[in-house]
Amino acid sequence: MSFDTIRKDLQAQRIVPHLVDYEQTCAKHSWKAVQASLQGLPEDGLNLAYEAVDRHASGALANHLALRCLGKDDSVRDLTYTDMARGSARFANVLRSLGVKKGERVFALMNRVPELYFTALGTLKNVSVFCPLFSQFGPEPVWQRLSRGDAKVLVTSQALYEKKVAALREQLPSLQYILIADVTDDLDACALSLPRLMTASSDKHTIPQTCPEDMALLHFTSGTTGMPKGAVHVHQAALTHFATGRYVLDLHPEDIFWCTADPGWVTGTSYGIFAPLLNGVTNVVDEADFDAERWYRILDEQKVTVWYTAPTAIRRLMRIPGNPRVQHDLSALRLIHSVGEPLNPEAVVWGQRVLGLPIHDNWWQTETGGIMIANYAAIDIRPGSMGKPLPGIEAAIVKRGEHGIEEITQPDVEGELALKPGWPSMFRAYLHDEARYAKSFVDGWYLSGDLAKRDADGYFWFVGRADDIIKTSGHMVGPFEVESALMEHAAVAEVGVIGKPDPLIGEMVKAFVVLKLGHPATDELRLELIGFARKRLGPAVAPKEIAFIESLPKTRSGKIMRRLLKTRELGLPEGDLSTLEND
Ligand code: ATP
Ligand code: MG
After folding, report:
1. Which ligand is nearest to the Cα of residue 363, counting in written order?
2. What is the dihedral angle through the alpha carbons of 20, 257, 254, 280, rounded to the nearest 10 degrees?
3. Which residues does ligand 1 sit against, CB inside 6 Å?
4. Nearest listed ligand to the Cα of residue 555
5. Cα of 176 from ligand 1 centre, angstroms
6. Which ligand places an atom closest to the C-alpha of 226?
7. What single string gives the DSSP state of each residue in 100-159?
8. Closest Cα to atom 12 of ligand 1
9. From the alpha carbon of 557, which atom of ligand 1 is closest?
10. Which of 289, 322, 458, 550 has the most CB atoms around it within 10 Å of its CB?
11. Which pTM value belongs to this model?
12. What is the pLDDT along the chain (583 residues), one digit of tens a residue?
């Protein structure tokens, strides 16, 4: 696939990508130089919120639009960098007045409204720890995280408080204050009105000494493979957020950027708050949930230039027949990125054909705090590949050998994806689980738990999560390969593939298929799909069984939960369901 057109478009818009020559950028990269692009605080201090807003508010971008918040009711709230600096200063002063200290946890359980962003940035300005929760969690997952995370303060709305927290408040002894963002009067001595406190607080605030290694964020993982883990991040993560905003998202201050993830997931903070603000762009936030028509309208009306979304959303858009560019002007868009799950090659090609741009896949985890492997604006995409490591990141394919971890240097050989520790946004702990943290680092490598391979040109290809790999007749099969092959069939909307224990061949490849509208689930189609997959994958790897289902079980962050497909198939206990979408 040639991407000369994108380069021409970029030239026409006179936007020179930050990263043009990959090898040269890698050779020249140093984290010290990235740090020098930020301002820092006296005595080698570094505060993520200072760099994200205050730095701009006292510079050339003071009146530049930082946040455009689109309400569910179609209201629009615009905030400049100065507004963001002031609002977050007020929130920091609220925390100070309540006696909330450095390192103490401030949780947010809110819709995507401006107060959420003041809470995040203001908490960091107070050098307390910001812990976002997805507002659609039920009471049990909320309680579990507040309790495991030692919440001192919770910022929420009255409805969310009454529905999800009030009944369990007695069981949260460390939770001292609940700040309610949409009431004018306090509910009781501890459930206080946030607007009242904000109005009573000054919008001037001096950030106390912050060390780059001070704890800044606590993020729970998606729970795709089991009980969500609490990953701890520090202020120094700002360097990765800033650098990936440049190298990967290719942000320039004139950009209108939209990240569709909720800050309850790490993508929604690293890229829904920090990377865009650190790079001084206008960040679009939509309060509403996924709606294809609404999303195309936002891209069109807001003139979004750089868009960061996820495979699950792209697959939903792909199901809709027709061409959105007939009703919508998407010509402002110059880059589309995706993260969260493997992006089927079919989706990259669909982007080029239907949206006029290919989709740039990138890989990272809650633990890595930022993008680690990516497809870059000016570099050819290989559809189905996650791309190449970020400049400054050493990634390798490794295996556990007789003498510990061994690097696999031959191309196209599967192994575990590992990273050399030491990048700025690397997690510093799994909360309350030191043993698990220690086990993630072996012989000088961080082991990701994902399997991948690297081709001769240095592109990385995702194979599957170690837990999801299927061992069939002596072959190791990654579900992604099988899912991508079936996705090429015109009737298929979505697929999840698992290994089902089989006495003869170890595990049998079984596919759960969601069909597109207008394609009835018949035995004929089942046989056709098996034949279709066999032609592409060969009989050893193609599914032997196909089941048609209405929808796939997914995490609330949109990831297919193959472990649930498997436990349901085998009638086993389902395990932690706190992040399941349709519970
Ligand atoms: P848990 O660790 O609780 O089971 P999780 O791993 O899904 O949940 P996240 O940290 O949100 O939690 O997701 C990171 C994982 O998502 C990666 O380890 C990988 O398996 C998958 N992933 C993310 N981006 C990509 C991508 N571009 N291609 C393939 N897989 C991806
Ligand atoms: Mg994980």
Report:
1. 1
2. -90
3. 221-226, 228-229, 339-342, 361-363, 365-366, 386, 448, 450, 462, 465, 557, 559
4. 1
5. 33
6. 1
7. --TT-EEEEE--SSHHHHHHHHHHHHTT-EEEEE-TT--HHHHHHHHHHTTEEEEEE-HH
8. 222
9. 11
10. 458
11. 0.94
12. 444 555 445 555 668 899 999 999 999 999 999 999 999 999 999 999 999 999 999 999 999 999 999 999 999 999 999 999 999 999 999 999 999 999 999 999 999 999 999 999 999 999 999 999 999 888 988 999 999 999 999 999 999 999 999 999 999 999 999 999 999 999 999 999 999 999 999 999 999 999 999 999 999 998 888 889 999 999 999 999 999 999 999 999 999 999 999 999 999 999 999 999 999 999 999 999 999 999 999 999 999 999 999 999 999 999 998 899 999 999 999 999 999 999 999 999 999 999 999 999 999 999 999 999 999 999 999 999 999 999 999 999 999 888 899 999 999 999 999 999 999 999 999 999 999 999 999 999 999 999 999 999 999 999 999 989 999 888 888 899 999 999 999 999 999 999 999 988 889 999 999 999 999 999 999 999 999 999 999 888 999 999 999 999 999 888 999 999 999 999 999 988 888 986 4
Give me the domains of the chain, ranges plus CATH numbers.
4-439+446-454 (3.40.50.12780), 469-570 (3.30.300.30)
CA of 340 to the centre of ligand 1 (A): 6
Tokens 């639009």 locate to 65
Tell me the two tokens of residue 348.
Answer: 């990259």
Q: What's the CA gap between 195 and 122, in Å, rounded?
A: 14
Nearest CA to ligand 1 atom 5: 222
- The token pair at 85 is 């600096």
